[in-house]
Amino acid sequence: MARRNDAGDVVEWEPHGLDCAVCLDVARDAQQMYSSGASVRDIRSAIEKKWASAAAHGTHTPTPLPPRP
Q1: d(Cα 36, Cα 4) in Å, to the nearest integer?
Q2: How confident is the model at residue 30 (pLDDT cuts 50, 70, 90)?
Q3: Which distant-in-sequence residues (6+ apart) come within 8 Å of 48 by Cβ?
């Protein structure tokens, strides 16, 4: 995600996510969880937990949290 509008909707994506294996894995997992009825916050929590070891090595992308309803 590169940019959100004032409502918090994604309006621009980072192009590297199209070729990054980690980004593609995250997108696949998020889509599967969303299709199964998981909330966006639960999905984010699960993704962050799964990839915590990578984040500890400085590879975490600091994606801002969506606004609270």
Answers
A1: 25
A2: very high
A3: 55
Whole-structure pTM value = 0.63
Amino acid, res. 16: H
Give backbone dihedrals phi and psi of 23, rounded to 5 degrees, phi first: -60, -40
- Percent helix / strand / coil, the chain, rounded to 5: 50, 5, 40
Question: In sequence order, which residues have a C-beta less than 8 Å from that of residue 14 and are 6 or more positions away?
Answer: 1, 2
Q: Are 15 and 3 in contact (CB under 8 A)?
A: no
Please state, rounded to an integer, the average pLDDT across all residues of the chain: 82
